[in-house]
């Protein structure tokens, strides 16, 4: 039965339809400012404003280079806080961006060079159980290491090494985190490439034998940011007698610490060597030690002087400047690098100007540039021939 009420309902619906149909779309932003890129200080803080995906949740996500945060600091010996290092590195990179990433020194823009770079977020490690956290780091890193790559042809052109399985694997730049994270990283990397060499930039050797290390009161305490290279040596992750420290200036318990360091497979460049011999000598010594095999570059930010980088857990006076360190890093272009990490950045001790975070983020940029420039195949072959002849 048609009533006044039903007539009113029909009328109101018609008015609503008319109003909706005649309503013009209001979008002044896209009308005047469509596709405006984020500025250095705006947008979600991924590294260098790169695209960002939580890659651990997307096993089929492809990339050639991953930035992977590892916010772990449960095995430090002095000042904690490196769990915030991945956040600080991303914040310190805000003035970097793909469209202004060209290096006049290295003549490359690593963000647009042909290798697809992605910020893969963080490995969400537990802060309550170091043993479990180390397992989580390996699981997360190994998963990322086995993601598909985007540009196999570009990796081939750059002479990047395939894994023992005959496949190309992504290169990962780990954003730490305290230096203990390198133990599970070396575990995962050595499974793909076999034992690797290490170029270790640090104020400390980190090969301390846990049997003599102060604070090693249990099996779990034996694994920390001062002993992880010793464990890596014992577990066979490191190629014998082919690794090197650079920037060392810490104090030792005695000559036995240096004996253990040699046992673990390392040579040593003291921070003062830069005054006696210069950057070029340091670079040549590193390259002669490493040879043509797969190498991991591990950079503790305390290799730089605390006047340059105060934001670290174990500062030591007398370190290198960021300029000196970057010149040394640039000289390593062409090496067969399969992984990088930047560790021990503790932003609670930084200045309000983020001077430590900015310096550390620039080291990551240099690492990206090394990857974009590829492996010097001629030098690697020449080195191989020399080794064979000997």
UniProtKB/TrEMBL annotation:
<feature type="signal peptide">
    <location>
        <begin position="1"/>
        <end position="19"/>
    </location>
</feature>
<keyword id="KW-0479">Metal-binding</keyword>
<keyword id="KW-0378">Hydrolase</keyword>
<dbReference type="GO" id="GO:0008783">
    <property type="term" value="F:agmatinase activity"/>
</dbReference>
<dbReference type="InterPro" id="IPR020855">
    <property type="entry name" value="Ureohydrolase_Mn_BS"/>
</dbReference>
<feature type="binding site">
    <location>
        <position position="204"/>
    </location>
    <ligand>
        <name>Mn(2+)</name>
    </ligand>
</feature>
<feature type="binding site">
    <location>
        <position position="179"/>
    </location>
    <ligand>
        <name>Mn(2+)</name>
    </ligand>
</feature>
<keyword id="KW-0464">Manganese</keyword>
<feature type="binding site">
    <location>
        <position position="302"/>
    </location>
    <ligand>
        <name>Mn(2+)</name>
    </ligand>
</feature>
<feature type="binding site">
    <location>
        <position position="206"/>
    </location>
    <ligand>
        <name>Mn(2+)</name>
    </ligand>
</feature>
<dbReference type="GO" id="GO:0033389">
    <property type="term" value="P:putrescine biosynthetic process from arginine, via agmatine"/>
</dbReference>
<keyword id="KW-0732">Signal</keyword>
<dbReference type="InterPro" id="IPR006035">
    <property type="entry name" value="Ureohydrolase"/>
</dbReference>
<dbReference type="Pfam" id="PF00491">
    <property type="entry name" value="Arginase"/>
</dbReference>
<feature type="binding site">
    <location>
        <position position="300"/>
    </location>
    <ligand>
        <name>Mn(2+)</name>
    </ligand>
</feature>
<comment type="similarity">
    <text>Belongs to the arginase family. Agmatinase subfamily.</text>
</comment>
<dbReference type="InterPro" id="IPR023696">
    <property type="entry name" value="Ureohydrolase_dom_sf"/>
</dbReference>
<dbReference type="GO" id="GO:0046872">
    <property type="term" value="F:metal ion binding"/>
</dbReference>
<protein>
    <submittedName>
        <fullName>Agmatinase</fullName>
    </submittedName>
</protein>
<feature type="binding site">
    <location>
        <position position="202"/>
    </location>
    <ligand>
        <name>Mn(2+)</name>
    </ligand>
</feature>
